[in-house]
Amino acid sequence: MTPAATSTFAARARRAAAPLVALTAVCGLALTGCSGSAPGDAPVETDTVTLVVHDSFPNEEFAEAASTATGYDVEVISAGDGGELTNKLVLTAGAPIADAFFGVDNIFASRLVENDVALAYRPAEFPESGIPYAILEGEQADAGFALTPVDHGATCINIDPAWFAEQGLAEPATYEDLAKPEYQGLTALLDPTASSTGASFLVGTVAAFGEDGFADYWKSLTDNGARIEQGWSDAYYGQFTQGCEGGTKPIVVSYASSPAFTVNEDATESSTRALLDTCTRQVEYAGVLKGAANEAGAKAVVDYLVSHEFQQTIPDAMYMSPVDASVEMPEAWAKFAPEPAADQTHDLAPDEIERGREGWLKTLGDTIGL
Amino acid sequence: MPPVIPRERSESREPATPPSGGTTESGPRGAKRVRRPASGTGAWAVAGWTLATALPLAFLFVFFLWPVLSLVATGFTDDGRPDFGAVPEVFGAPRTWRVIGQTLLQAGLAAALAVVLGVPAAYVLYKLEFPGRTLLHGLMTVPFVLPTVVVGVAFSALFGPAGPLEWMGLDRTLTVLVLALVFPNVAVVARTVGSFWARLDDSSAMAARVMGAGRIRAWLTVTLPALAPALASAAALVFLFCSTSFGIVLILGGREFSNVETEIYRLTVQFLDLRGAAVLSLAQFVIVGATLVVSARLRRAGERAVELREDAPREKRPGLADLPAIFVFSLTALLLHAVPLLTLVLRSLRDGGGGWTIAHYAVLVRPPAELPLDAPVAHAIGLSIRIAAVAAAIALLLGMLIALVLSRKPRAPGLRRAQGLFDGLVMLPLGVSAVTLGFGLLITMHRPLGLGFDLRTSAVLIPVAQALVALPLVVRILLPVLRGIDERIRFAAATLGATPVTVLATIDLPLLGRSAGLALGFSFAASLGEFGATSFLVRPGAQTLPVAVGELIGHQAPGSYGAGLAAAVVLGTLTAVIMLVAERLRVDGRWGGRGAQRQGELF
Q: Choosing among A6, A15, A23, which should be mutated to test the B contact, i.e. which has the most B CBs within 10 A?
């Protein structure tokens, strides 16, 4: 061992450690920066309200507007799509992750009611027009709401009219049409076990064909070359002729509101159309969570969700119709994306859906191998 | 073959700095009775090692085992009573067996293909010398750390309807699914096998050549058997990754090619069937556990069975005879890696009518209100980077402690067994479903351990979850370096009076420092792209980049899908840059240097 060798080794060690030290320091700085800005770990204060929502909610904007309107410091957290949000609320029942929730639709609503997750509540200023959508706490019409409806829309088959005109083929209009040989290989459906929009379409077919007939209908669809995608965007943006460059399916499961977003620049025409005889109603609910740290604040946020001020923003921000019928709908909606009439849709009650859902999916799995 | 005794470099062979004081009770006592260091420091050493073990253990117990076991336990209790009725029920269903069969089939095929394609890649990247090699090293790793959402989207854009390869008719087939699974894993094989290969003593192969064996024959009969342990260990790892793959299988596989992981997701998220999910989680534990055991066996066999050189021989320039390997490697890099990524980039630059546009990128800077973006994507990038930095710091700190603990070679069999268990525990986060972890954290982190605040809605939980995912990678990168140190050097230092701290500071840590850059880069990139666990955590205003990609791609607003593709390209580019920087940091812990110290490769 020579001193020279030793010093070389030590020098190498220092050199080797230098970037490490630097990087660790950077990370340390980032760590303090991050924990410093992390909200939510402060002890709960009475003037803070947390609202948990599904993924497609305009979080920041809402937080600002709602804070101003309610006087509370409103914080919004996302918790996944409708199904994921519901299950998180059920799993944390009693020790909720927030004070209020929004965005559970009629496919999952009964799951919340059955698991006793939400507090019965009825906003004082609730618009009359929304009462038919409410899930009532008791038998009477003026009973509290088990869940408060905020907006509604419909899942419908959408088509590309130009494609049919070009092919000289009549446009389909009903569920039954999709199974006809002339529409072979033209439809993109959604896997109801993976997509809530797909589940909504499934509910429509159960409502239309009955618990004994819906599976045969799905079988006739897949036999007719329907393609089943995992998610709405895979179908609409991946397969639909009007959804993307080079799409090959002119028929797709989407929403009644979708044609409002395929209008041309002059807003004189929409390149897509929803088939109003193939629709299923979707209602999105809000509510106060049982065990909320700030119950009064949660109620104020639910009040705000059904207030005229917020209801006005729903069409543009969430592609749904507000429960408040006095809200004027955007022009493009009225023109190109009319709502199906109330007696035109194929619906089931939330508790019927909750009871039957798993069995239908199983039946479907056995029939078409989903 | 004689057992391997890695020859240390001449400098490190020198005993460490002589003690500048302190207790030197255990002087040289003769070679046969080397004693453990001074008893005075012994108590400190025990305390130190205990702490080094306890800290990561506590982290794993609190943030991993407790949540996961809690969720699984929820599935096995009914009104507070244990209920195992779900076990026969779930295993009685034919679908369960189909799903398990699919899992094994996909992972097996992917592992085999990854090995076939990874070996030429290992040869080209580790045995040949050519300009741009370091760049290729870094680029090859990008697929490994790209978020699976992006991989899924890229492959469906490539093979699906209207994709450039639609004519092959492979859309919706097992083939595309397996290709997509192989996509990130060729790098795993190339790194594992390549770093081993580079240090393989090729004198036996030379001898075979001298005796008249042809190139191919010499390779098949001498080199290939020597590589076998590394190959097997790499295959086991790829199998592990693929058998727990989530995003890729969900997007490309649908219900038809469901694996255990996506089935757990569906049962939990769609059906709230925690009983079924718990049983499948157990099945997954079994598959992952078995793979880990096999992989550990193979790795140990690899660590001692072959003659390795410390310094790699100088790599040679590519010659004519290397053409087949270069050909296969180029095809892999081009068709498997470049084409899906290029498709993604091109699609992000097209508008609905087929024209070229950068509108999707412009949207990221100034998001319209209808897009599900809380803030411009720059904000999400900043947040992702901060969170990933914290996650990487946690993973690196704990990973170093774990690697140090695992690198010791205790003599007591009990301790050795405990060490093996610890090793397995550290690897387990690789094999546990992100849904199970995410939902488990949700039910346990409400005022955990009597703390006064709710961790579930705190942004703190995100880096913690990401660190859990990155931790096994860090350990596997650092561990071989430490295990490569000849135990006799530590003994020599100790006999000369170095305290355990001095031994650590002068022998282990400097070597660790060299690989720490790579480990940090890897864990940083892995955290940056982490989607599964992050997306299951509830978060206040905390939209990381992969989560933003996921939300954009699934949103109804016009232009949202295109913006999602553009955000995916941004994420991929960011990851690539980080991996290239980490790749530069790797060698000798110095920028730009090109040494031959290749122990610190991945796994």
A: A23
